[in-house]
Amino acid sequence: MFGGTDEFEEEMKGFRDEENARNVSLALKNPKGLDLKTEKMRRAVQYTSKGGGSIVAVAKRRRHYNSNYHGKRVELEVPIREATDPIPEEIAKRVLESE
Fold it and tell me: How far is 70 from 81, CA to CA, in rounded Å?
């Protein structure tokens, strides 16, 4: 389960399409801590950072992290236009695709 990044995404889509799931939760717990430097963890973080979910973590000293409280930044190359010009459909489409 969860081979490559694309495979991870396909697995999540499979839960939606085949099992009719609208919410999938995965919890990894270990009182002594998890190894965060594995390939599987990297792929899961990549998936969620692209908008595929969220991460909630508690560090050893009980510090909490929730990815929902951290904004995502996307840089777009936007041609300079006059203030009165309407937003081109191409730019709006690129912004919506990056979310």
Answer: 31
pLDDT digits (tens, 9 = 90+) for 29-56: 888 888 888 988 888 888 887 777 888 8
Query: What end-to-end distance do the CA atoms of the chain give, in Å?
Result: 26
The full 3-state SS of the chain, as one line of letters, equals CCCCHHHHHHHHHHHHHCCCCCCCCCCCCCCCCCCCCCHHHHHHHHHHHHHHCCCEEECCCCCEEEHHHCCCCCCCCCCCCCCCCCCCHHHHHHHHHHC
pTM, 2 dp: 0.52
Give the model's confidence band at 58: pLDDT under 50 very low, under 70 low, under 90 confident, else very high. confident
- Among positive and negative, which fits the CA dihedral 10, 25, 16, 46? negative
